[in-house]
Every structure is written in structure tokens, then in C-alpha cells.
Amino acid sequence: MTQASISPVDTHPARTHTCGALRDEFVGSDVVLKGWVDTRRDLGGVIFIDLRDRYGLTQIVFSPQDDLESYQVAESLRNEYVISVRGTVSNRSAETINDRMPTGRVEVRVSSVVLLNESEPLPFQVSSHEQKAVATNEDLRLRYRYLDLRRPDAQDKLILRHKMYQATRRYFDSQSFVEVETPVLMKSTPEGARDYLVPSRVHPGKFYALPQSPQTYKQILMIAGLDRYFQIVKCFRDEDLRADRQPEFTQIDVEMSFATEDLIYELTEGLLKAIWSDVMDVDVPVPFPRLTYQDALETYGSDKPDTRFGLKIHNVSHAFADSGFRVFDNILESDGRIVAIVVPGEGDRGRGWMDKLDKEIVRKTIGAGGLIYFKLPSDGSETYSSVKSEVLPSQFVDAAVSAVGAESGDLVLVLAGTNPTVYEQMGALRLHLGRDLGLIDEAAWNFLWVTEFPLLEWDEEASRFFAMHHPFTSPHPDDLELMHSDAAKTRARAYDVVLNGTEIGGGSIRINTADVQRQMFNLLDIDEVEAQARFGFLLDAFKYGAPPHGGIAMGFDRIVMLAAGAKSLREVIAFPKTQRAQELMVNSPDIVDENQLKDLHIRVVEEEKK
User: Fold this and answer.
1) Fewest beta carbons less than 10 Å away: which of 113, 219, 392, 435?
2) What are the chain's domains?
């Protein structure tokens, strides 16, 4: 047996085909393939190897009758060795045809092999035949990300992302948009998430910030007359992470002069339709349905509703007016709400299932006070109420059942509480039931717009208003007076685009006059001095003929995640951060040399022990 040795030079010509290319029509051809040993099978006298590259797999055959030296080299080959082979394409025998592989009807009889590199045993499997890496601890996979990315499933997600990049750029170019890069080092304007700060060596004690969004820059581009701008841009937010968040993320950033909401809707729908058509081969119907923020909350319990299933929310407060049931009476007297959903066909559920739903989901997970329910058995027998009739008389139960349109065999679930919290709690219960009962159509692509968001949201802890979207969102023209008299009721010219219960984009028509912008700053407790210090460049620009403008920013990572059917953004980003904001492969963030800190006029202070 000849021990294979790594060749310092690949003596074969350039590869003639990829490992996913060969078919019946290539039989008899002399070919050169290069890739990784995916699997190896020694049948005693013949060695079979599945050779892998990102295009697929090809079975290659080593036999001493074809070439003894190559066969002897193959005896020492192991998984993930990198090799180059030369040989002749042959038909597989009928009993060895593998219809699960695109190349499964042919094989390459090897006449020459070059070992280009060896591999140590892997910490987890990456074979195209075994997707065991998926079940491997994620931290281990991210530490060896260069191995994890060898899996076809991981590569397919990055290729899908690439295709979506290209479709996005083609679409915006066809719509006369100009792609403009905005600065990565900018001024810190904290409002919402924390900034990532970058110290300046040249200007001691001063800091750049990494952009949370190019918001002010794209508005400046409209004032500069660019008219139509877009950018596929990196953004950064120093916030707590979850499955659909990363500290650095990519968004499709768009701004238009003389924009209206309808123009933004039409443009965005066109983009998403083009992406789904070009990349997914799916025809997305347009225009998308539209719901106001208030309607979305009161119908689905969420400002990003999943409309792939029913279970709509009903306000049944009127059905329980003056019921004498103390819990309901107290809630209604304090301007709360009693809301219900109908779960079709579940009216025969037993006590155990109902108790678990109440204690484990409603009380523990959702945080509601408790679940009240009415069962309408399928045999047509009397409606069962979880509240005794002497406490909640049956005529009120009947009124609620009638109001929600429940029928024999249905289950009516009721929550009571403050507004809008009780809607959000019922929305969470609705989603749980949709998943638990298998009501969600996983093959559907349900896009919709949520419109007319509140301009402001009140923070009890800070005792002040915050902008629900951002400080540059224009108030609804019908609500300008409310900014002075009842700011909490002011609507914004803001909108979100939602896909299958996930917000994938949001935007607004912007403020374009200095006086309205100052009114907005006043509502946010940003005084004239602070406004000038933080946003003076924008206020000054408004003085020189700023056109009306508006736009949208779409979360590119989220769009790819949903299109790929992935559960986390980390699956569609080449080198993602963990939920602790660490990049494990390179061990980032990490300490730096003391001299680097000295150059930046920074000293690390240890946190005091409590």
C-alpha cells in the first residue's frame, strides 16, 4: 500500500466540471474534478468515494484494474481530505443507480489522483449524506464555522441570500434609484437602542458611533436632490439579542422625494413580488392587505399579525355589561376590555387540557390573570361555562357566545384586563393555539401593511414620551392640533410591512420643516440646545428647500430567514454573533493591547464588586 503524500502543486489541469454537473450525456468523457472526500466505502478491491464541492456530489471509483497507484492512494484517503481526480465518466450499474442524487446515474473511473490536503477528525459531521451538524451544539458549530458552512444546507442559505441581493439591486435600478453609501463612522444620536461607540485617536475624548440606521443621511440626500436613494447597508445596535436580532444586521434602506404612503406601498410590494418571483418562483399577489394599527391590535392582538390562520379576537365587553360578576364589573368600570376568540371544533376538550392551558400558558407564559371559557359540546348539549351560573348568569354567557358566532362543537376562550394589554395577551394565546393545534398554513406567504401607528408612546418609568418609530416621523396631517392638545392620540404617517407574523420593514413619511421638527423634539423633551447639538445639521438643511420625502427600511436578514424557513438569523448570516454578542470563531470581542488603549486615551476601569 502506498501512503499518500500531500502534493505541493496540483499537477492536474483546471477542473473541467463541478461535482454537481455530470449526467448521462457526459459518459465517455475525460474529466477533472476537485473537492472534499464526503464519504468513503472500501468494498475490498474497489473503493468508492463521494466527492463534494458546493455544487453537489459525484461518485468516484478507484480500482487497481483502472490505475493501481491511484487505488493505493485511495486506501489512505479519509473524510474531508481535499483531492483532485482525473478519470472517465461511466454509467453506473443498474443496481447502484441513486436517483436521490442529480449525478446518481454516473460515476468517474479514476485514472489519476492528487492529494491536495489532509484533514484531522472533525468535531462534528458535515457530510452531505448526514445532517448531524444541525443537532450539534450551536456554540460548537459557530466555533468551527468554516466546517459548519461546508454543509449544503448552510451553503444553500447563503446562496439564497446572494440571489436576493441581486434581485433587490436589479429591481431598484429598474425604478431609477441610485445606490449611495453613507458613513459607517457617524455622530452618536442616542434615541432608542444603545449606540456602538468608536473612540477617536485624532480627537481625544470624542467618539464616533456606528449607525443604527442611515436615517438622517438619507434625508439629507433627499434635500440634496438625489430624489430616489437605496442602499443595502450594515447597521448596528447594542441591544439584548434574540433569534431575530443581531448586533450588526443588514437592511434594505430606501428614500424617495415627493413620496406618499401609496407610492411607498406600491414600490415595496413591487420589490417583494420581484424577489419572491425571481428567487422563490412564487407569485405574490399585490396589493397587500392593509390594517390600521388599532384594527390589527383589536383583531389579532399584535401590530405584526400572523394572518395565516383565523381565531380573530372579538370585543365582548358589551355582552357582560352589568353581569354582576365582580371580576368583569371591576374591569369594565376601569375602562378595561373583555375579549374572546372562538376555537372551532374544540368544544369537547377535557378538564385536564383546559387546566393546563389556563395555568401553564395563560397565567405562567402569557402573564394574564386567568382564563374563562365556554364549551359548546358537539352533541348539542348545554353550554358549559367555567364560571358557575350563580356567579355569571347564563344569559350573559349566551350573549357572548352569540356575539362571537360560536356553534356546536366550538370552544370560546375569554380574557379580561386593561386596554391594550388584554388584546396583546389574547394575541399571544392566539399564536400559541395556532401552533399547538396545527392551524398555521406553513406554505403560505401572507404579506400585509399595518398603518397609522401612534406617533408617540408613553414610558411610565421615565415619565415621558418616546417616538414609536423615530423622531423624524411626520404626524398625520389631520392630527397636527393633537400634538398640542392630546399628544398621545396623535397618529403617525408610519407603516410596517409584515410577513407571516414577522415585521420585515418599517418606514414613514418624514418631517421636512424645521417648525414641525421642533414641535416633535419638544414632545420628546429635547430642548432647543440639545436639538441643535444633536441634529443641528438636519434642522439647518430644512431651511434650504427640503422637499417632502419618505421611505422604508426592510430587514434583509429577516427576509432571508423567512424565505429559507430558518428559525434564527444566525442560520442566514455567514459569521453571526451568539445571543451574548460574541463571534466564537475569532473570539470577538476580545481584549486589546494596552498601547492601543493609550493611543485612544482610554483606560479600562474594573467594575466594582457589590
Assistant:
1) 435
2) 24-117 (2.40.50.140), 157-178+212-291+448-583 (3.30.930.10), 309-440 (3.30.1360.30)
